């Protein structure tokens, strides 16, 4: 017999649990299904292995939205710690502070290479490329070809799995906006001389943010607290339950979910909130939507973390290191003790996470855990961060569909799916990163859930979740269910920057928004 609730929620990540908690506070009955049998939080979860805790991807708790910050404090009032942001770039055996310290960079690059960088920068400014189509075009125009090749090209291609010549210039303009070479060098000189005492409060270029808050046991601590509050309201979070089918039933919905042993659970609900990948949701809807081909064309970049325990009390001080060296496959190395000392229980052992970007089914994704631990161990030694005999153990966490891919057709595909679902199903609500196929930050995902809750309380789509902007604010919906109108009004400005692949035949890049 089906369990009847006011709202069924697919996914116990930041968006799903935010909605569940706020609805429970408002007196609604809620059931959340989560495919993971152990962890809530989605990509913001914290995994535990032999007492060591590690973040999947690194999650700073920073938002310009007062409502989001207030909700974080409400859920986790006593467990935030203030952490300094320290990260460096690794290139050809040397480390470069980020933000840049001018004298250190000049010393590491050497006089000859530094001169080439300045000459390349001057050349780009004197003779910029006029037909700017690609990421490479844009960055070379801004910084010169030499700095582009050192600090941008390799890492960007590792993350996104496509050449910089095929990525849209729009993405570069979004990702690096507010950061210029002159400003970075000037800031770096002041820091090198100890003259810059003013902390970066987040209102400067986003890439220069210096301090952030962090739950002392990792970001999963936040979402475990949210789950517990949901349960305290008398509502349910069903772990290890994957969406099987979602079908209209009378004036509401019949949702079925299955467990690993084949058990099926049926849930009847008036409203459904989905943070499941848009492509997956479309295949589970009954009847299938007309926009199924567009949903099926949506693509994702996948991700895995190899966590190593290493015999070293203080391996390095960085929160993370960007690996720009093309000799290794790792893209970034997290140092979990620097995120929070409480995540690493043994003071004589360090725990680091090597992040590899991949596509589900490719060589990295399909490699065994033992092969990946061995690869990570070799690359740590090659980078000079530790010796292989210092590694005491390791484990692997795979995160499928970590990043929505913005190819040439993604915006039209997303709009087609959203337009049909909102027109046909006013009580089906899409939220979060994968639910909306938008590379949102954690706080943006939460805001989409907050606005969805307000819409459910109002009984109409009075707030447009697609219009959450990059400061986690929102615009009132121009008209109910108008996806196109909100996009034209700047809805896509809430996206974290991700690259759009250039069309092969067009003379000009198609803009994402």
Please give the structural blueprint.
Layout: E1 3-10, H1 14-25, E2 30-34, E3 46-49, E4 52-55, H2 66-75, E5 80-84, E6 87-91, E7 94-98, H3 102-126, H4 135-143, H5 145-151, H6 153-160, H7 169-175, H8 181-192, E8 211-215, H9 220-232, E9 236-239, E10 242-249, E11 252-258, E12 264-274, H10 278-284, E13 285-286, H11 292-296, E14 300-311, E15 320-323, E16 332-335, H12 336-339, E17 349-358, H13 363-366, H14 369-383, E18 391-404, H15 410-424, E19 428-430, H16 442-458, H17 483-488
Parallel strand pairs: 1-2, 1-12, 2-9, 6-15, 10-13, 12-19
Antiparallel strand pairs: 3-4, 5-8, 6-7, 10-11, 11-12, 14-17, 14-18, 15-16, 16-17
Helix pairs in contact: 1-9, 1-16, 3-4, 4-5, 4-7
Describe the structure in your own words:
This protein is α/β, with parallel strands linked by helices and 513 residues long. It has 17 helices and 19 strands. It has helices spanning 14-25, 66-75, 102-126, 135-143, 145-151, 153-160, 169-175, 181-192, 220-232, 278-284, 292-296, 336-339, 363-366, 369-383, 410-424, 442-458, 483-488; strands spanning 3-10, 30-34, 46-49, 52-55, 80-84, 87-91, 94-98, 211-215, 236-239, 242-249, 252-258, 264-274, 285-286, 300-311, 320-323, 332-335, 349-358, 391-404, 428-430. Strands 1, 2, 9, 10, 11, 12, 13 and 19 form an 8-stranded mixed β-sheet that branches. Strands 7-6-15-16-17-14-18 form a 7-stranded mixed β-sheet. Helix 1 (14-25) packs parallel to helix 9 (220-232) and helix 1 (14-25) packs parallel to helix 16 (442-458). The radius of gyration is 23 Å and the shape is globular. It starts with a strand and ends in a 25-residue tail after the last helix. Residues 199-208, 470-498 and 505-513 have low confidence and may be disordered.
